[in-house]
Structure formats: structure tokens, C-alpha cells
Design brief:
The structure holds 2 protein chains of 2 kinds.
Chain A: H1 2-25, H2 32-53, H3 55-76, E1 79-80, H4 102-130, H5 135-159, H6 163-186
Helix pairs in contact in A: 1-2, 1-3, 2-3, 4-5, 4-6
Chain B: H1 17-48, H2 51-58, H3 71-87, E1 93-97, E2 107-111, E3 118-123, E4 129-132, H4 136-147, H5 152-175, E5 188-189, H6 193-207, H7 209-236, H8 241-249, H9 265-275, E6 280-287, E7 295-301, E8 310-315, E9 320-323, H10 331-344, H11 349-380, H12 386-413, H13 418-435, H14 439-465, H15 473-498, H16 530-552
Helix pairs in contact in B: 1-4, 1-5, 1-11, 1-12, 2-4, 2-15, 3-9, 4-12, 5-7, 6-11, 7-8, 7-10, 11-12, 12-13, 12-14, 14-15
The chains are: A mainly alpha, B alpha+beta.
Amino acid sequence: MVALVTAAGTLLLCGGIALLRLSWLGKRPRNLPYLAGGWLLTGGGLAAFDYAWNAEVGTAYGLVALSLAAYGIIALGIENRWHKAPKLRDIALEPEERTTNWPRAIAKALLSIVLAGIAAIGVGVAFAVAMPMATHDRMVVGGLLVPILWGAGMAWTLSDAKLVRATLVLGSISALGYGIAFLPKVLP
Amino acid sequence: MEQRVEFKARKRQFLPPDFVRAMLAGHSALGLAFAALIYVVCLSGTVCVFVLELQRWEQPDAPYVTRALTPDEVGAALRAGQAQALADNAAHDLFIGGPNPATPRFSVNYHDHETGAEGSWLADADGRLAARVKAPFSEFIGALHMELHLPRTWGRFIVGLTGVALLSSLISGLLSHPRIFKDAFSLRWGGSRRLQEADLHNRLGVWGLPFHVVVSLSGALLGLSTLIVGVLALAAYNGDSVEAFAAILGPRASADETAAPIPDVAAMIRHVEAQRPGAVFTSVHIDHIGKSGQVVHLGMRTPGHLAMANHYYFKGDGTPLGDGGLETGGVGQQILGVLQPLHFGWFGGYPVKIAYGVLGLALTIITHTGVTIWLARRRDKGRPVPHWERIWAAVGWGQPVAIAASGIVALYAGASFVLGTYLATVVAALLMAAVMPSAAATAAVLRLSGAAVFIGLVGVHAALWVGRIGDPMAWIVDGALLAIAACLAMPLARRTRGRPLGPAPRLVVGEDRPSSRDYQTGRPQTTFRRDRARQLYIRGLLCSKASNRSSTT
């Protein structure tokens, strides 16, 4: 039974992705049935995995299968362009051109790696110390917040050309985070 | 991630072009800064998914167990392990790992963290120690992925930071890809190298996103845990990291070092089995074994959960101390339980492991293509960096050669020379890149070398173990290694045989000589419609600026 529903879920996912690709090839509004059907089958496929295995395990299996099904469908639809020049619309958007120098590059690195990290750890530890949750929950969720916030801070500081703004924001977040985290220690 | 340009003033976009271009600049900077580290961690991580199979391949005459163990068999292994640990003067902490969905091996490990003495054994199904673990190649791969062979604290921190950089790249990549749905299925092969690499980079990145996020997040958390818990300990545990870890990972042994009988693990297993029908033994860890302060962490797996096991805690005399809630506890406990299996793909047997192998390889390709897109963009803009093209080819294609060469040395000479071989091969690949005429030539030589070394690895393994292979996994791994060799060599054979004879038309803008060659194929790039290409390029930039203006007004 489990194997059968898993196989059905896999087929539904493949069918869903295939329909989404058909929708992608067509034009609106004619492709709307494919679009709706594609998402419906994809959702059905994930639901089938959940039904077969339970939500915890089935979701993990379903998402892995979804990625592989999409890779497979994309590989089947590969477009050979050996004899074609790239079209104008294919040219990639250029990254922002910025004048830079070593001091600025070092400042950026310090901001994105060090200060963003300090701020993220501050928020994570503040969460782990101060949130009204069970000890395990606040410690693990607080820990999980650190790489997410650090990564987001890194992405933001590297894309923001204004160094002072990033420094002020991250500095303020750090002060707030560590203030909350260490407040119980300094209070009598 | 690469983004296609919008030339027409279209309807208002979800993400403003200025924002996208800024994100793209940050994405490029971050990717370039961490590219080599991320690449090594991703490639070694992909191999690590199969590290338990590699262990079996390295020791194919060792016993393996394909059924669940009985409590008495675990008890027998514990007694045998403790006797051996005493003989080796390493009786302090003892760990027994039973067969589980990730591996059918029954292992016994002991370690004295004060003297550093330790031992690892494989037991048969009756709990008798049958052979010392000898898997230097697997240990090398594991340490490369988790610590980059640096001192443990620093190594884990740098790998954790690499995970953060990867996570950050995923965030900035998504935010610089507003045509995520419009380009959802594009994979254009051939023609413009930059377009091909961008399509591959984006498709593999977007459709594998759940996997990429999970492995980078869990990897970052595992790597940074010491740092995070250290700060948490300062804030809430008077600087005592051990106490802070104990709050998460369960009780640790007390300092009472007076002698005591070793715990009756069989009774503890029966106790859990009575409480949780269907629970199967997976592991037991005894902190300060044979001392009055000893604490037992018993791992028992219940079907229907991602966690490899829940941990049940006991005092040495068998008094229960609760459990870790890794299967059915709070959110934090369950997250803790799934971190390792979700990171390594050890939760669904071989189908999931193979899927993780494919997705891990996809993440490695994404990292590699990220840099090649930047290199191709430089070349398209008439500012090629041929030396960096060669270096990146050496970094990318040198790793498989270095890993396989390390494997050969590990099989022949043990652990002593493995790291040296790896580093020497990496340096040799970089030096070779310095004298090669192009990135294409560098890649071709390294791919062929890689294929040869992988075949050599299988040959060495066969020569060492012929007639003594009892574990069928060894044959499967040998087959997989030969398949990798074929994958490394096959595109080169096809290139010489079946590619179109004429060079594909390129969108070339630069006039300088280096840009007249494709940096990967080494073929001359045609000057076909170069003036037209320049016009299109300039028009593209102008339209992009016009689009920016229209979106901001």
C-alpha cells in the first residue's frame, strides 16, 4: 500500500511538473488549465507522500522527489543551441557597477561577516534566553535563527552600497540583542 | 543567480531592477569570496552522503548485520567493548552503534578524552568484537567536509561560516531572480557559454531549493553550534558551555569517579521497548563508563520519524532520567533530532541517499557555474581574466583527482599520508594551470587524470581485496567509482567526436585577443556580427536603464 501510494505520488509530481512546463510553453489565457492542473497535481503528489508516510517523513520524501522530478523534466526539455546566436532578450542583467577600493572592500567584509554575525548571534541568544518557551525549544530555535539572520544580513550588507547605514542598523540590532540576552545577569 | 534583462518597459515588476542589480552585485561578491570553500564543502559533502558505504568498501571483509539486534547482543558488545577499552587503557566513554537505515554495521568505539586514547571495532551479530575499524579514506572525507582538516574548533567554525555564506547566496540569488517563473524550465545548451551556465545555475538552484536551504541551514547550525552555545553560556550559564550543551543534548556524567558496575544496557532496552512498542535499538553512549557518575544515552528508533533515534537517559544503576523528545517532543527537540539525518540524507535508505547524491552534486555544479558565469561575463565585456579561468578550472576539476588520489594512498599506506597527498594534488593542479594554455586544456587534462585515478583506485582496491570481499557493498562502490571515471572522461570523448565542426556563434563585444577564444572549449570565437553584437549589448544596457527609470517613476 505504502509503495503504491508513493509511486502514485511520484507520478503525480512528474505529471504536475510536466503540466507546469506545458503551461510555461503556452500563452495566457490558454495555458491557465495547464497551470492550475500542474499545481493541483503537484500538491496532490505531496499530499500522497504525506498520506503514505505521515506528514513528517512524507514531506521530506515529497520535496526530494519534487526536485528530482523537476530536474528530469528540465533535462528532457533541453534546448540545443549550438548553431544559434543568443537572442537579445537572453542577455543577462548586469550587476550594479560600483567603484571600490581595498579599505571599502575590507569594511564590507567586516560588516557582512563580523558585524552581521555578531548581530545574528545576539538576536539568537536573546531569543534563547528571553522567549517564554520550553528550554529546548527556545535554545534550538534561537540557534537556528543565527545562520538565517546572519545569511540575510550578509546578503543585505553586500548589496547595500551605503556602509554607514548598514553599520548603524547592525550595531543597533547587536546592542538590542546582547542587551536582552545579558540583562538578567546584570539585574540584581 | 543570473537574471535575464528586460528590454521593454513592461508592467511594474515585483522586484525593482535597481534592487535586483544591487542584489546581483552582492551575490557575485559573496559567491566569488567563498566559491572555493563552498565548492570543496559541497563536493566533500556529496561524497559524505555515502561515507558509510565507503567505510564498508574500505573494509569489505568485516561483518555486517542485516537484522535488529536483541538486548542481550548489545549487552554482550558492551561487555566486550569495555574489556577491550580497559586493555587499551582507554576506558572512559563508550559508544555502540547498531545497524540502522543508514548502515548495517555494529560498531563499538571507546575514547578517553583525558589521555586521547581511543579504539574503534566492528562487532558480529553476537556482540563479539571481530575487527578493528580501518577506514582512513572515509575518515579523511568526513574530516574534510566537517573541519577542512583544520584544528577542530576553527575548522567547524569556518565550515559553519561557509554554510552561512551559502545560505546568504541562496537568499540573494532568489532576490536577484525575479523571472523565476518565466525562466522556470529554460535550459539552453550550446551557443553562448554564459547563457548555458546561467540556465544550469538557475534551474538547478531554483528546483533544488528545499534541499539547498536544508543542507546549508543545518550545516551552518552544526558548524556554528560551539560559538552560539559559547555565547549562550556566557549569557545564561555562567560561561559553562558543558552545562549549556547538557541543557540541549541531555544529562552528562557527574564528577564522581569511584568504581561502579557497568550499566545493564539490555534491561534499559527492554524498559524502552515496553514503553514504546516497535522501538528498535540504534545506539548507546555511556559517559564515564564504570564510574559512579556514569550516564547512559540509549538511542531507540521508532518507525515513522525522520530522526535517527530518540535518546533515553538512564543513571548507571538503571534509573530513568527522561528522554530527549527527538521524535515526539517539542519543536526544538524535534528539530534537533532531524538535523543530522536531513543534512546527510540518512533517513530513507538508499533511494534518499542516491537522491541526496544527485542534489548534492547539483549544489556543487551551482557553485562551479556561479564562478564560470562571472568569468564568461568578464570575457563578454572585453575584460577577460584568463589566469583566473585556468585557476578555477584547476580548483573545480582538481578536486576529484585529489580525492581519488587520496583514496589510493589511504588504501595502500593508511592515514599517515592521505592529507599530504590531497594537498599535493591540489597544489599540483594549480601549478599545472599556470602553464596550461587555456582553461579548456586545464579542465581536459584534469578530467582525464581524474578518470585515470578513479580507475586506478578501483584497481588498487581490487588488488588489495581480491578473493576476500564479503560485503557486496564493495562491488557496488567499485562500480560507482568506475561510473564516475566514465562521467569524467566521456564528455571529452564526445567533444572530439560529435560536436559541430564550426564554432558556435558568440555574442562577443571585446576586441582584444584573449576574448576571441572561448575560455572553456578553447575554440576560437567567431567574430560573426561583432558590430551587431556591440550594438545589441549597448542597446541592452540602455534599455535596462530605461526600464530602471520606468520602474522608479
